[in-house]
Write a structure and sequence with these properties.
Strand content: 25-35%
Strand order of the largest sheet: 1-2-7-5-6
CATH class: Alpha Beta
Radius of gyration: 15 Å
CATH topology: 60s Ribosomal Protein L30, Chain: A
CATH superfamily: RutC-like
Number of strands: 7
CATH architecture: 2-Layer Sandwich
Length: 155
């Protein structure tokens, strides 16, 4: 499908990864009514883990931001699959939940999760504005730096 969102991705030079298969007993997304709930997405690009480590230890804010952006790309890929391959069916990003693998004294989780939030605004424009949370976690699956889940509205 080639609509305004697909065109915007191309103009921005953004490539989406293949939607990742679930790693345990869950499904990657659930569509109920006009909402898509996307399970937490980690820092994987087409099967390759990236951004392994902890903020405040061996990963800085800039790399954390890029890790969150990668999570955002994975969220969009899953949302696209949920929307039957047509990103233009997505009316808005409703909410993001960001988890940052960080040391107890690291307090810049919001700056890290901005990597996902900024991406949503770039891709979906006004529809990319969303509610969110950004919290620290003592560890995340497979040692990744960031995990983000999301809720999208179909229009």
């Amino acid at each position: 499908m080639s609509g305004p969102i697909t065109t915007r991705l191309a103009e921005l030079g953004i490539e989406l990864p293949e939607p990742a298969a679930p790693a345990a007993n869950y499904i990657p997304f659930v569509v109920t009514g006009n909402l898509i709930f996307v399970s937490g997405q980690i820092t994987v690009w087409n099967g390759e883990l990236r951004h392994i480590g902890r903020l405040g230890e061996n990963i800085d804010i800039d790399e954390g931001y890029q890790a969150a952006r990668l999570c955002g790309l994975n969220l969009i890929a899953q949302a696209k699959a949920a929307a039957q391959g047509d990103l233009d069916k997505i009316k808005r990003v409703v909410k993001l939940g960001g988890f940052v693998n960080s040391t107890p004294d690291f307090t810049d989780q919001p700056k890290v999760i901005n990597g996902t939030s900024d991406l949503m605004a770039e891709v979906f424009g006004e529809g990319g504005k969303h509610a969110r949370f950004a919290v620290g976690a003592p560890t995340l699956p497979l040692g990744v730096a960031v995990e983000v889940d999301g809720v999208f509205e179909l229009g």
